[in-house]
């Protein structure tokens, strides 16, 4: 379709069309575009959280490129003589000096630095809430489990990109963070010392850590993330986006706006809004004022030294953990006070990562799902998610225990003990409370379906009784409130086989049945209104 | 001339010269020294001690004992020096209002003259660090950068990078140093109040104390410059994280809801 002699004879096609034709003849983009550009995207604000992450990631990359033009990833010592007077004559690494230069002598440098850092905080926060959106709506279910893992990897890599990034200026705060990491590595039995020597190219801090972190931060991790991100988005396209239940929405369709032009226009506008918010934050509020912190020196340390928020839970783990130490025969020390947190750290993350697989195993649900769950209709999952968040928050509080102590006039020991106990207790309480709230909401849904919405209009009946008029719901609303299925728990199978012989039920299966009862058994759902009940009540036998 | 040059070598010449020199210095001293003060000081001093003793008996003796020897409610003040009193009373820490983890600073109830009298009385109980003079603690012309380096080495572990304060164990804390009077900073270093170690001149000479004061004045006072915009209290990543979540992500969500609500109406086709 690239050349047509007939067209040549009459008139030249417009230039744009010719270019498109040229490209299509070689790249075959037309058919690709045809199918994808009309792809439908449902509209819901919570579906835009992933976009916030995407746009802040783009902003981070753009500003990061600018910063690499001026940043010197070197630990060789120089004496500072730039514009920031309170640092005059101080010996510091070139990395720190160049960050001071970016802040005070490079045009727009400070603003770009602040955009880069604020965007990083927002990026991880956006990923976090995006992940929670996907979690609570059950969007991770088949066929999206792999995409859930891609997303999870992006979150973890984002954490480490952030960590390596804020370590680069080699200031006293981030240097303390690197020291913290060194301590954690050293606590690994047997290989800890070797690992540390390998990473730092000798004794801490050495001269290699900043150049190495630099390559990891600007090349390795962003490269992997970019690849994962593209894969993530391709999968979103391929699976098509999920949608909330509603009239006309089925497991087989997507109701919304086409990608082009509507969604693209919105997305483009949204990018600039995100950029605008981050730029405004960065123009108005200081972040990581490294000039006030001083260059890193191994003999200096400051109180109130915390990592960025996404690393805060690891700080909390360390601060809450008692400083246990075991000396093994032969004089080998096990620094449990550091090693245990180091082991719990990946567990916290893994707990959320593997959840989709556990849920599908426990519930035996292997079907595809494209309609999202309303969180209340899955009290156990919602409870688990809320418990995990509360757990994470408890650890964040632990990470800032000193600041909480000072600002709320508490004893830091009390805060630490609170965190230690809360680490075990709060998730359980939150789970129970969340589950109950979900059940309460389910009850209300059932009520609404059967008796309609409370209208706020009070009517006096002939015999004097006052009643509130309930308005019946529309068909659409009824559909939304009743479309969900209520599953039965899996059974481990009968105790005896058809011949009456006691069957051997494998342990795993028993466990699975038990967990499944936990998910869908008693007290996990309020039976939704059945059509019969509905008919009976709406046919006038109801109490009003 | 000849006579003088001959006597110059006289055995007693050296003695005579010495006598002359002594007389000259003595005379010079008498001429230049503030004569009235030399006489009046002991008198004023003892008056101040008298007054201080009275103030002490009213405000402090209940805890520190009538002779400053200490009780179960307060430590001995023998040998703490006038600097400690000037600091403790000047920052309002003393008189202590109620026992607690740490004596907090609060509005000071004594005039400077009364504080000086209290200080004089306590100083008379035993020698200790002396209240510094203005030229000792004035940060004028001190080396800010060096002060920063010293502060990070000696003070940041309790007071934070820029003196924002920090928590110690069991509810004790190193306070925020914003806008603390230079004199009180100097005295804090001299006397090491409560859980703070003292930094006497052998450890941290006068010049270095001035550098630290100058540094604090630059980075942690009401008119410190914050080139990056509002400093969010200067507490670092914890406040930054809270801020990114509430205002950063909060704004994003508001914007997302706004954008999502502005949907194109689907055309019937
Ligand atoms: C670099 C970070 C990330 C970016 C840029 C990103 C971007 C996106 C975008 C734009 C979408 C479609 C719109 C939406 O549903 O919000 C999406 C969907 C999805 N994301 Fe992410 N995401 C990231 C991280 C994550 C994380 C941390 C997870 C979970 C561990 C995750 C899991 C998913 C899943 C399962 C979907 C499909 C949701 C559905 O179809 O309903 N993503 N992502």
Automatic annotation (TrEMBL), chain A:
Coiled coil residues, start to end: none
EC primary class: translocase
Keyword Membrane appears in the UniProt entry: yes
The EC number(s) this enzyme carries: 7.1.1.8
Keyword vocabulary terms for this entry: Membrane, Transmembrane, Transmembrane helix
UniProt-listed InterPro entries: Cyt_b/b6_N (IPR005797), Cytb/b6-like_sf (IPR027387), Di-haem_cyt_TM (IPR016174)
Chain ranges passing through the membrane: 52-72, 117-136, 148-168, 180-201, 213-238, 259-287, 332-358, 417-438
Annotated region described as Disordered, given as residue ranges: 483-503, 522-544
Catalytic function, reaction form: a quinol + 2 Fe(III)-[cytochrome c](out) = a quinone + 2 Fe(II)-[cytochrome c](out) + 2 H(+)(out)
Matches recorded under Pfam families: Cytochrom_B_N_2
Cofactor(s) needed by this chain: heme
Keyword Protein biosynthesis: no
Domain Cytochrome b/b6 N-terminal region profile: 19-245
The protein's name in its UniProt record: Cytochrome bc1 complex cytochrome b subunit
Source species: Streptomyces lycii
TrEMBL record, chain B:
Location of this chain's protein in the cell: Cell membrane
Keywords: Cell membrane, Electron transport, Heme, Iron, Membrane, Metal-binding, Repeat, Respiratory chain, Signal, Translocase, Transmembrane, Transmembrane helix, Transport
Catalytic function, reaction form: a quinol + 2 Fe(III)-[cytochrome c](out) = a quinone + 2 Fe(II)-[cytochrome c](out) + 2 H(+)(out)
InterPro entries reported for this sequence: bc1_cytC-su, Cyt_c-like_dom, Cyt_c-like_dom_sf, Cytochrome_c_Oxidase_Subunit
EC number per UniProt: 7.1.1.8
Residue ranges crossing the lipid bilayer per the database entry: 242-261
Pfam families per UniProt: Cytochrom_C (PF00034), Cytochrome_CBB3 (PF13442)
Cytochrome c domain ranges (all copies): 47-126, 142-220
Signal peptide residue numbers: 1-30
Membrane topology: Multi-pass membrane protein
Subunit and interaction comment: The cytochrome bc1 complex is composed of a cytochrome b (QcrB), the Rieske iron-sulfur protein (QcrA) and a diheme cytochrome c (QcrC) subunit.
Protein's recorded name: Cytochrome bc1 complex cytochrome c subunit
Upper classification of the organism: Bacteria, Bacillati, Actinomycetota, Actinomycetes, Kitasatosporales
């Amino acid at each position: 379709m690239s050349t047509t002699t007939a067209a040549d004879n009459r008139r030249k096609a417009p230039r744009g069309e010719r270019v498109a034709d040229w490209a299509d003849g070689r790249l075959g983009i037309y058919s690709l575009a045809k199918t994808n550009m009309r792809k439908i995207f449902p509209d819901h604000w919570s579906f835009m959280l992933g976009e916030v992450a995407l746009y802040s990631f783009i902003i981070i990359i753009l500003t990061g490129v600018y910063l690499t033009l001026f940043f010197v990833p070197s630990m060789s010592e120089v004496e500072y003589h730039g514009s920031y007077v309170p640092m005059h004559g101080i010996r510091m690494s070139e990395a720190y000096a160049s960050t001071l230069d970016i802040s005070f002598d490079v045009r727009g440098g400070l603003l770009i630095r602040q955009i880069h850092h604020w965007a990083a905080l927002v990026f991880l926060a956006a990923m976090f809430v995006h992940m929670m959106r996907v979690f609570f709506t059950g969007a991770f279910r088949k066929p999206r489990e792999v995409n859930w893992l891609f997303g999870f990897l992006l979150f973890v890599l984002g954490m480490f990109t952030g960590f390596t990034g804020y370590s680069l200026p080699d200031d006293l705060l981030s240097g303390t963070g690197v020291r913290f990491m060194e301590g954690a590595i050293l606590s690994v039995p047997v290989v800890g010392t070797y690992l540390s020597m390998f990473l730092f190219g000798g004794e801490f801090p050495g001269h290699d850590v900043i150049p190495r972190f630099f390559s990891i931060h600007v090349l390795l991790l962003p490269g992997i993330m970019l690849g994962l991100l593209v894969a993530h988005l391709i999968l979103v396209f391929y699976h098509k986006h999920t949608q909330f239940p509603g009239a006309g929405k089925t497991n087989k369709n997507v109701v919304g706006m086409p990608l082009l032009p509507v969604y693209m226009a919105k997305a483009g506008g949204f990018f600039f809004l995100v950029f605008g918010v981050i730029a405004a934050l960065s123009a108005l509020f200081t972040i990581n004022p490294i000039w006030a912190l001083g260059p890193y020196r191994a003999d200096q340390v400051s109180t109130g030294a915390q990592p960025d928020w996404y690393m805060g839970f690891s700080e909390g783990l360390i601060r809450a953990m008692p400083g246990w130490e075991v000396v093994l025969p032969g004089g080998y020390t096990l620094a449990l006070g550091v090693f245990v947190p180091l082991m719990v750290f990946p567990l916290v993350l893994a707990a959320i990562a593997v959840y989709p697989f556990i849920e599908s195993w426990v519930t035996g649900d292997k079907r595809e799902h494209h309609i999202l769950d309303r969180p209340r209709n899955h009290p156990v999952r919602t409870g688990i998610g809320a418990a995990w968040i509360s757990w994470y928050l408890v650890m964040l509080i632990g990470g800032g225990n000193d600041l909480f102590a000072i600002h709320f006039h508490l004893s830091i020991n009390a805060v630490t003990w609170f965190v230690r106990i809360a680490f075990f207790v709060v998730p359980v309480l939150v789970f129970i409370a969340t589950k109950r709230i979900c059940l309460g909401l389910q009850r209300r849904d059932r009520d609404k379906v059967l008796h309609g919405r409370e209208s706020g209009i009070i009517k006096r009946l002939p015999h004097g009784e006052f009643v509130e008029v309930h308005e019946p719901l529309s068909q659409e609303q009824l559909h939304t409130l009743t479309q969900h299925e209520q599953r039965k728990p899996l059974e481990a199978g009968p105790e005896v086989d058809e011949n009456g012989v006691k069957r051997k039920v494998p342990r795993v299966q028993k466990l699975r049945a038990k967990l499944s009862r936990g998910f869908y058994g008693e007290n996990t759902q309020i039976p939704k209104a059945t059509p019969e009940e509905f008919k009976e009540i709406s046919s006038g036998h109801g109490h009003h | 001339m000849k006579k003088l040059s001959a006597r110059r070598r006289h055995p007693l010449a050296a003695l005579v010269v010495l006598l002359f020199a002594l007389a000259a210095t003595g005379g010079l001293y008498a001429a230049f020294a503030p004569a009235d003060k030399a006489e009046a000081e002991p008198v004023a001093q003892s008056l101040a001690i008298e007054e201080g003793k009275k103030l002490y008996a009213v405000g402090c003796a209940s805890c520190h004992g009538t002779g400053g020897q200490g009780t179960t409610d307060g430590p001995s003040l023998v040998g703490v020096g006038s600097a400690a009193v000037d600091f403790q009373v000047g920052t309002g820490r003393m008189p202590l209002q109620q026992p607690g983890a740490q004596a907090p600073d609060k509005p000071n109830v004594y005039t400077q003259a009364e504080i000086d009298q209290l200080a004089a009385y306590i100083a008379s109980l035993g020698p200790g660090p002396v209240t510094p003079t203005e030229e000792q603690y004035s940060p004028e012309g001190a080396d800010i950068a060096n002060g920063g380096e010293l502060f990070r080495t000696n003070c940041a572990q309790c007071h934070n990078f820029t003196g924002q304060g920090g928590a110690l164990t069991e509810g004790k804390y190193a306070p925020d140093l914003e806008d603390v009077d230079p004199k009180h900073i100097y005295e804090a270093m001299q006397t090491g109040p409560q859980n703070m170690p003292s930094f006497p001149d052998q450890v941290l000479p006068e010049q270095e104390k001035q550098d630290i004061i100058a540094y604090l004045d630059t980075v942690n006072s009401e008119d410190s410059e914050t080139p990056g915009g509002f400093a969010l209290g200067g507490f670092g990543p914890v406040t930054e994280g809270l801020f990114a979540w509430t205002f950063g992500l909060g704004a994003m969500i508001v914007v997302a809801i706004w954008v999502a609500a502005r949907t194109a109406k689907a055309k019937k086709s």
